[in-house]
Amino acid sequence: MMKLAVDMRMSGKSGIGSYFDSLFPFFKENFEVIEINPEIEPFSVKEILSFPKEELSKINACDAYYTPYCNIPGGIKVPVFSTIHDIVFLDIALAGFIGTKARKWFYNRACRKSNLIFTVSEFSKERIFHHLTCKKPVVVTYNASPAQYTGAVEKKDSFDSLNLLYVGNIKKHKGLHILLEAFKKILTTEPNAKLTIVGNAKNFRTGDDTITKEIDSFGESVNFTGFISNEELNTAYHNASLLVQPSFYEGFGMPPLEALNCGTNVVLSDIPVFKEIYKDFPVTFFECGNSEDLAEKILLASKKERPENLPQIYSFERTFNIIKNTILGNCAK
């Protein structure tokens, strides 16, 4: 059995951590996994220049190294397989000039150091080649919905009032300000409507506090939960009339798929990656950035029957098999 060193540092975290934790059981079944989990921050100088020797020895005694992100420690001598989920920082100005340059350097370093790159959509693959000096193959391994987000919790058949759910952060590319504008319009005809915003508070960083003040201005109509557990999020999906995902940019976008698997309808922006990922699903698209169209589509979608018999397009087992076969085939050359 192939011996594979696996970077565990993203495990237990939201986003990429959820992606990795769903894949990891398959790694354990199919490889002799050596877990790499030093207390060193990803994308740090220490990671590149002074990664612990005992950890490097474990890695270099393996046949290959896999990371679910694009951070790669210095000193690795075996084949490396890394993952670039998206390059939003290069497509949208989120980090300032120096921050953007630093991220581009790390992305390009991953391309240089890796035997190949995994990513989660054809959209992200196209953007990688657009922005980066990447001469390595890029293999698409679509994301999927974690097993805990299912129809196991009883879904309400009807709602006393419109109960909207947003899952994400409040960085500008997530489009929460567009949803708040639309929600303000909805309250004029649906005064009892509620909006629940779910996300980790420490990741809710923008350049100012304008968006948080706007959230507060709605009073009890808007509830910001902060971070909640997977079990609580599963319940939130089931208790929502609709999930609304108004993003301007995503690499894949997991919450719509999670909500659909919980029997909850979805309204989402018509950005290219959502058109790619959700074109075969019973979702409602609205014109990205148009709050009036979003308000109209929310009211229309709230009358739809709940989604059932979803197309079985994405699964972590299928995604893992692509990763496994790619690693085995590349190392056999």
Polypeptide structure, described:
By secondary structure, the protein is α/β, with parallel strands linked by helices. It has 13 helices and 12 strands. It has helices spanning 16-30, 45-49, 53-60, 88-91, 96-113, 122-131, 176-189, 210-217, 230-239, 255-261, 272-278, 291-301, 316-331, and strands at 3-7, 32-36, 64-66, 80-83, 116-119, 138-140, 163-167, 194-198, 222-226, 242-245, 265-269, 284-286. The strands form 2 sheets. The chain has a 6-stranded parallel beta sheet, sandwiched between helices. A 6-stranded parallel beta sheet has the order 9-8-7-10-11-12, with helices on both faces. Strand 10, helix 10 and strand 11 (265-269) form a beta-alpha-beta unit. The protein is globular, with a radius of gyration of 21 Å. The two termini are 17 Å apart. 40% of the residues are buried. The mean pLDDT is 92.
